[in-house]
């Protein structure tokens, strides 16, 4: 086959274009730190990278969910600790008021303290975080404890509770679940209706029980007969707090697991998509040398023409 000057020129230009493409690829990898800049360069790596990135975004969302849940649980936990301390104070006052030897003045003074304790329990019932009431069920925007009564949602629509005339909407008994992994949900809230509106053996809710304690003391009657009911209410608070502690422990384990999974996924993504900088610098340097050598060779081969020999 006859080799012409034009064939040599076209072959040189084709090789020159391929050399430029390699230089461009190495330069892009060095600038971006990524193995590929277009899916067409390596479809398999591109698909694996997209999947790993999607998994990382999912883990990040679950971590945000877990952080929100942890803040909510810690706020509720602090409120229940306060309630337990207040229960101890309430028991001390009731034990003190169980004796017939107290005078009328002392009884009334204790009654006033009990009513203050009730209002403090009301403040606990209205514990909030970020403007959301933690004991309100799914109705987190309205305070559950309103005008001396722990309100709850009526099945017929209007608000009802110990004070039905208030006309204000309060909490319900719905659970708010937070997804921490596919198929793994944890409850965000403690049901305030269960905590404060559950009736004791005599049919009294917790706030109604506190009212009766204060009423008896104001009438000069000891309250030793109400200590059994106090045990019921106190046991319910303790059980609720214990359950919340178990949720908090599980949440901390899930946060640790999510953090570990994020680290493993990031490492996998790095292996799939990130370049070895030292290797790319070496390849780029070698390709630059090859490119210069090719240019020099092409210049020497293509420079002479027939006109060069006819002069």
UniProtKB/TrEMBL annotation:
SUPFAM superfamilies: Phase 1 flagellin (SSF64518). InterPro entries: Flagell_FlgL, Flagellin, Flagellin_N. Residues 149-168 are annotated as: Disordered. GO terms for molecular function: structural molecule activity. Keywords: Cell projection, Cilium, Flagellum. Residues 6-140 form the Flagellin N-terminal domain. GO terms for biological process: bacterial-type flagellum-dependent cell motility. The keyword Amino-acid biosynthesis does not apply. The keyword Iron does not apply. One of its GO terms (cellular component) is bacterial-type flagellum hook. This is Flagellar hook-associated protein FlgL. It comes from Candidatus Carbonibacillus altaicus.
